[in-house]
Structures are given as structure tokens and as C-alpha cells.
Amino acid sequence: MYIDQINNKKFNFILYLPIPLVFLGLIVVNFFATKDVNVEDIMQEMIETFGRNLTFAIAVGQLAICLVILLFWVKFIHGQSIRSLTTSRKKIDWKRIFFSFTIWGIFVAISTLILYFLSPENFQINFDPVKFLPFLIIAILLIPLQTSFEEYFFRGYLMQGIGVVTKSRLIPLIITSVTFGLMHIANPEVGKLGPIIMVYYIGSGFFMGIMTLMDEGLELALGFHAANNLIGALLVTADWTAFQTHSILKDVSEPSAGFDVLFPVLVIFPILLFIFGRKYKWTNWKEKLTGKVYEYSPEIENINTIGNDNE
User: Fold this and answer.
1) pLDDT score recorded for residue 44
2) Transmembrane residues, as ranges (predicted)?
3) How sure is the predictor about 191, in pLDDT bands with cuts at 50, 70 and 90?
């Protein structure tokens, strides 16, 4: 139902194209413009010029603006409701968003504490209340907008548009997950940790895409993504990450990647899918992930009703 609900005669493929072409084009241009440049040096120059908080606000604020543009385009150019871009339910289920945010936020906080107590030599206490409080306000205001844009664009706009065009659920799941991962290819983490970090980025895309298709809406993905970026940015920073912030801790260890990158994708994400599946009574996995997209009619509202209750 999440994709099917926009598969009707009003869907205009020509109007659909400009947003993904412009955004994905900017990603490609940015990649080739920075592939021979040390992104870490650029970040340090910006921090020296503007300070950490303003540099962070500029970086995150760009995607917050993109969210406004995307929602305007959907609402006034396509004539599609924001509710239908968000969910197949009759209204956005905020309980789902907060449940997903809470469960992942707690996991990020606990795992950070465990790492700190197991290897305290890898961290420095970075907490400065005078600098942290403005950062906290900026982060709470902007990070949910940044992550919401990425969800509305990849798991929303692209997922629905590609699904309608291909009449498939699997094809948009694959395309949006891979492109979501590739969007991060210019991040300084890739240069420091190597290509293996792309497994995490692309795996995260698949995880949130599966959640969206199985739950027939973006709510769980919106909550998860916001918690991942917000709680992570508040707790830990490092000189080689995309977000260099006035966080509570600073990671001073030599960056490396191995099974710790694969562990969330291979272990934690499947466990979360199991938890969400049990809570929201997901069924018919094969059809929802690989089945066809049907032309919308009132009758198909009964095809995928599981998970549309507001638990």
C-alpha cells in the first residue's frame, strides 16, 4: 500500500524526475570535485574560520533546506499529500517514530558507554557546557530535519517513484539502498576506514528500506535515522568524521574498520527487524519486499492491512 497508493493516473513521471536528477547530480559533482582533495583539511579550515557549531549548522542546514524544497515539490507540484509520502496509514503514526527513536537511541548510548569503559584510553572527555549547550540546541533543531530529508528522499520519494515506474518493490529497495550508501562515499570516514565502511552505509539503506516496505510507511525509519545521527553526534566526535562537534566524548584512537562495521549489518539490524516485526505483526514478507506494485483502487486497501494499526 505504501507504494501502491500513489500508483494512479495522477502520477506524472516528468514532474517526478527533476528532484532526483538534481540531487543525485549534485552528489556526483561533489564526489568528483573532492576525490583529489583532503576532505578532512577542508573541514578543519571551515572550523578554524567559522567555529565547530556554525560549521556543523552549515553542513546539516543544507539538507534541512532540501527537506523544505522536497516537501514543497511533493505538495504543490505533484499535488500529493505529505501524509501519503510518509505512510499508508490514515495519519502519521508518531508513536512508531518515537518507539524507533527510543530503542535505537538507548542502544547507541549503551554501546558508547561500554566502549568507553572497555577502552578509556581511546577517548577524551570533550564536554564543555558553554560550547555544548548551543550545539545541543542546533543538533536537536537541525539533525531531525537532515535525517528526515534523507528518509523522505530515498525511502519516500525515490522508493515510491521507482516502484510505480517499475511496478516492483524489490527494484526500488535495491536502488534506493545502494544510492543511499553511495551518497556517503565522499565522507571523510571512507578515506580513513576504507571501502569496507560502505558495507555499513549500504546495509543501513537496506535495513531502513526493508522497515519501510514491511511497515508500509516511513515512521520507523524516520525515528531510527534521527536517533542514530542525533545521539551519536551528541556523544562522540573525532577529527576524521563528517560531524566534528562539541560532543561529550572525543574518539582519539587510530581509526580502523573490521568486524565492528559488519556487526550491526549482520547481527543488530536483523534483531531489530525481528523486534519490529513481532511488535507490529508483520507478515507476508516475500510479497511486501519482492511483489508487484498494483494500480491504486479502494479495493487494494485490504491487500496489505497488517501493520497499519496504531499500536
Assistant:
1) 80
2) 12-33, 53-76, 97-118, 130-149, 170-187, 193-213, 220-238, 258-276
3) confident
Q: How many helices (H) and strands (E) does the chain have?
A: 15, 3
Please indicate whether residue 153 or residue 295 has the higher confidence score (pLDDT): 153
The answer to whether residue 79 sits within a structural domain is yes
**Distance from C-alpha of 269 to C-alpha of 272, rounded to nearest angstrom:** 5
Q: pLDDT digits over 79-93, tens only?
A: 999 999 999 999 999
Q: Could you list the residue range(s) of the whole structural domain that residue 190 is in?
A: 33-292
Say which residue the cell 563528517 belongs to.
242
The dihedral over CA atoms of 214, 185, 197, 227, expressed in degrees to the nearest 10, equals -50
CA distances 231 to 75, 104, 108, 191, 224, Å, are 31, 9, 7, 23, 11
* Domain-located, residue 147: yes
Residue 205's alpha-carbon distances to 8, 31, 96, in angstroms, are 27, 19, 19
Bridge-partner residues for 292, per DSSP?
A: 168
